[in-house]
Design goal:
Could act as a modulator of glutaredoxin biological activity. May play a role in cytoskeleton organization. Keywords: Acetylation, Cell membrane, Cell projection, Cytoplasm, Glycoprotein, Membrane, Nucleus. Its main location: membrane. 43% of the residues lie in helices and 20% in strands. It is built from four helices and four strands; from the N terminus they run E-H-E-H-E-E-H-H. It has a four-stranded mixed β-sheet with strand order 2-1-3-4, with helices on both faces. The model has no long low-confidence stretch (mean pLDDT 95). The protein is of the alpha+beta class. The longest helix has 16 residues. A hairpin with a 2-residue loop joins strand 3 and strand 4. It is globular.
């Protein structure tokens, strides 16, 4: 599996919930398979996400292709607006 979406099932933030749902909806609408990785299962998973993203304060959703960082919600949203989701996800066109 290539695309990985780090998300959380435990958050009080409506913004995070909304952003996660939007990323999933768009990926599904484009028939892009992805793996969900829930950071709420433990601090080590959250730390792994932050380390891979190169940001010690990164919050979900964070998107990767395997271990290669693609970006966060804002970056994904920009790619959707520019119709460059495949490039954003570092997928062959």
């Amino acid at each position: 599996m290539g695309v990985k979406l780090y998300y959380t099932t435990v958050t009080a933030s409506r913004e995070v919930k909304s952003q996660q749902a939007e990323v999933m909806r768009i990926l599904e609408s484009k028939s892009i398979q992805y793996e969900l990785i829930d950071i709420s299962v433990g601090g080590e998973v959250r730390d792994e996400m932050r380390s891979k993203a190169g940001n010690p304060t990164a919050v979900p959703p964070q998107i990767f292709n395997e271990d290669q960082y693609c970006g966060n919600y804002d970056m994904f949203s920009d790619a959707v607006e520019e119709d460059k989701v495949q490039q954003f996800l570092k997928m062959a066109c």
